[in-house]
Amino acid sequence: MSATIRTVLGDIPPEEFGTCDAHDHLFISSPTLPGQELDDAQAALAELDIFAALGGRAVVQWTPWGMGPRTEELPGLSPAVRRPHHLRHRNAPGQAL
After folding, report:
1. pTM of structure
2. Is pLDDT of 95 > 50?
């Protein structure tokens, strides 16, 4: 079995992974942090675009379950970035990191 990295778009070989932001919150919402919500997909995309322009290729989304990780939106954000981006939620149900 060869080494692979699981992303929201499927498995990739490690050599394609590149520079990684290993802990980020593209979306987050908590009643204990009123007014500090990250809930705008276009703003998340803008941040990913800046990261990609600086050479970043991968982001691990660490928003906990129950705080609005919006994992269903990650596959749509990944190909929308003009440079390759590999997004991964830290602990998708039934999957190990």
Report:
1. 0.75
2. no
